[in-house]
Amino acid sequence: MTGKFAYLPITVFILLLAAVSSCKKDVPLEENNPGPHAVKLQVPGNFPAAKQEPDNPLTAEGIELGRMLFYDVRLSGNNRISCASCHRQDLAFTDGVALSTIGVSGKKLDRHAPSLFNLAWAKTGLFWDGGSKNLESQAFGPLTIADEMHQDLLVLEAELKQIPDYVSRFKQAFNEDIKSTNVVKALAQFQRTLISGTSRYDKYKRSEAGASLTTIELQGMNLVNSKCKSCHSGELFTDDGYHNNGIDATFSDDHEGIFQGRFRVSFDPNDIGKFKTPSLRNVIITPPYMHDGRFKTIEEVLDHYQSGIKISPTIDQLLYQNQGQAGIPLSKTEREAIIAFLDTLTDYEFINNKKISNPNE
């Protein structure tokens, strides 16, 4: 035996050892291993049950870490772009432009940045063509693609390891050192908490005190139910499916088939020209519209469905609402009512919620 205990009488040493052992037992387990704290998703009363993710359960530590990463420009190769650069909270986590050029390469993207909310209910894939099965795998795309964030994942890990706060937070959330796999897990956890369910419509549906819709808004709700609900269904206002809604008659295979929609993933000829149904929630504040942002206003969208549908072999038969012809006939009054109702789906509490905003502001 060496060191400061070498010359103590054996009885004193035993007593000292017992005291040290006793002190260790008095330390709460959570102080030694704080561990992540499980969080239950807060589902609005009028929503369906949310999809569970056993491989990446929600924790308070994981969600907060994901929030920090979502707003951190270090996730991009040039340290200038964050996830929030293309997904702004004030625009329901979209960017307000048709095709962004904000990526590291400066090149115009081929698709419009989708809004990010109610993703805990996404069951049929992400991206406009469903090319990613879940939020975890989806995140690797924008992180690494040259025209978006263009980040080397090993470099990202090295950068984050230089920040003591991140080192501590990754340990708390995942009990591991910083890894890119846990970067995307944290981002996914945060994004699953982006729930938009506090619009005027929601409060009306839940019969909350003082909640009501006007006559024209109720008329619009009935029109949406009768003319649009086949695709924009349920309380989420999307069937989470893929449809050819007649915005094109031909579908080029340029750019690795990105203009061919779901076919690019499924290789099923019946999926050519089909793109994922976006939610109607927050639609008034998320122009432009469609997978390429071609329509600048909601009026242009209604014009398309009323008289601008282009026929192709995979055109959705649900669009044939005009006496057997493609199109959805709408009077001026009906259009006004639909727009009035869509406005009730704007969730101002969601876009101003400080709990999901930039933690550094």
Automatic annotation (TrEMBL):
GO terms for cellular component: periplasmic space. It comes from the Bacteria. Heme c 1 binds at residues 83, 86-87. Binds 2 heme groups. Its cofactor is heme. SUPFAM superfamilies: Cytochrome c (SSF46626). Residues 61-171, 215-346 form the Cytochrome c domain. InterPro entries: Cyt_c-like_dom, Cyt_c-like_dom_sf, Cytochrome_c_Peroxidase/MauG, Di-haem_cyt_c_peroxidsae, MauG/Cytc_peroxidase. Heme c 2 binds at residues 228, 231-232. Coiled coil: none annotated. Gene3D superfamilies: Cytochrome c-like domain. Keywords: Heme, Iron, Metal-binding, Oxidoreductase, Periplasm, Peroxidase, Signal. Binds 2 heme groups per subunit. One of its GO terms (molecular function) is cytochrome-c peroxidase activity. It is found in: Periplasm. This is Cytochrome C peroxidase. The lineage of its organism: Bacteria, Pseudomonadati, Bacteroidota, Sphingobacteriia, Sphingobacteriales.
